[in-house]
Amino acid sequence: MTSYSGEKLKVKWGKVTGASYYQLYRSTSKNGTYSYVATVKGKEYTDSSLKTGKSYYYKVRAVNKTGRVKGYSSYSKVVSGSTLQTASINKVYSYTSTQIKLQIKTVKGASGYQIYRSASKNGNYQKVAETSSATYLDKKRSAGKTYYYKVRAIKSRRAEQDMVPFQELSPVVH
């Protein structure tokens, strides 16, 4: 299972020979009540609109439909996944007229953070760094200019990278 963002989890399962489609169910506890999520023709599903920083449990069953008759497999083994919490910036320190240090509030399960910067609050944010540290030193800024920062937690797993939404920061002027 993969967390794509603070509100999404991607669930994958193996193909069942003869299956026409699959039915996916979700719960917020392993032994809780499972609710129907979706009917899926493929072997994966991205569950959207989840809450950040929460754990979810899934099970799936195959359905074989021949004419009007449906046959159901037993439910799969339960799998679980957790969405990442939204990262935020705790403190901003001025090092020099051209350097700012950001202190990031760490997020459980995150392997790192992406830092984005803009010259205006609603402007175009550009990625300036990716770090596994809870601090970042921005050395490429102009003295006397206002900057806006956003940070996003990421979780790297194999070749996939999971991301959560941005948390904005107040402007930084030096």
Features:
174 residues; mainly beta; 6-stranded antiparallel beta sheet; 5-stranded antiparallel beta sheet
How would you characterize this protein structure?
The protein has 174 residues and is mainly beta. It is built from no helices and 17 strands. Strands 11, 12, 14, 15, 16 and 17 form a six-stranded antiparallel beta sheet that branches. It starts with a strand and ends with a strand. Residues 158-174 have low confidence and may be disordered.
How many helices does DSSP assign?
A: 0
Radius of gyration: 21 Å
**Share of residues in strands:** over 45%
List the uncertain runs.
158-174
User: H/E series, N to C?
Assistant: EEEEEEEEEEEEEEEEE
Mean of all residue-level pLDDT scores: 84
Please report the total strand number as a whole number.
17
Identify the overall geometry. Answer: elongated
User: Which class best fits the helix and strand makeup?
Assistant: mainly beta
Helix content: under 10%
Biggest β-sheet: count, sense, barrel?
Answer: 6 strands, antiparallel
